[in-house]
Amino acid sequence: MDPLTAPDHDSALSRALLAVAQSPDDARKAAVYVALLEAVLLAPLDPASTSEKAVLLVERTANGHELPAFSSRQAFQTWGAVPTQLAVRAPELFQAALLQGIDRVQLDPAGPVKVTLGSWEVRRIAAGAVPAPHGSPDRDRRSALGLPDPPLPTSFVDQITARVSALEEITSAAVFEADPVRGRRHLVIGLRAGAPLDEPLIEAIADGLAAPDGALVNYLRLTDDPSFAELEAQATVYRS
Hints:
By secondary structure, the chain is an alpha+beta fold. 35% of the residues lie in helices and 25% in strands. β2 (59-61) and β3 (64-69) form a beta hairpin. The protein is elongated, with a radius of gyration of 19 Å.
């Protein structure tokens, strides 16, 4: 992550957060998401950080682990839990959090406006896309589908690459991360094909596939639906 100039209290994101606190309608929620795509956030650093390596501070909460992040220097100073921080663009920061297994972000936990971003929102913003503004963290946690996290093992990548390349019916495949099922990692392999996916085609990929971490693996057909197009460009994609 490249360090940037720390944001001040009059940033576009700070103004959007104040507006949504006054009236949390869909338009103002969407304005917060749009602002986050360009925003610079302050990420507090763990005391274990060194001059060579910045370690993000992660907090344990009743809902699991969250990354605290701040819209301005003033918001960070009000919180005051640790003295050091790093200024970084929100999508890049969220990507780093996802790689550490963190998919919830608490914006400005000491105010003036506190906002919790759920898994769906964090993953969409990390991918450079605007989330649907009518969700909630609880709903988002159930329906997230985003970039693979943590990175997929090379052996798994090689298996899928070889199998997709051997099938003329499939032009590409993308691996997405879905929310865990009963604590089990859940991967979705999206396939672009000239016809609907049938059982023999899926079996040609699935048979003997060694999923990482004992993950549950499901399959879906990729279409030109915008919800896929926004994610596919950022996902792990294999082309035949």
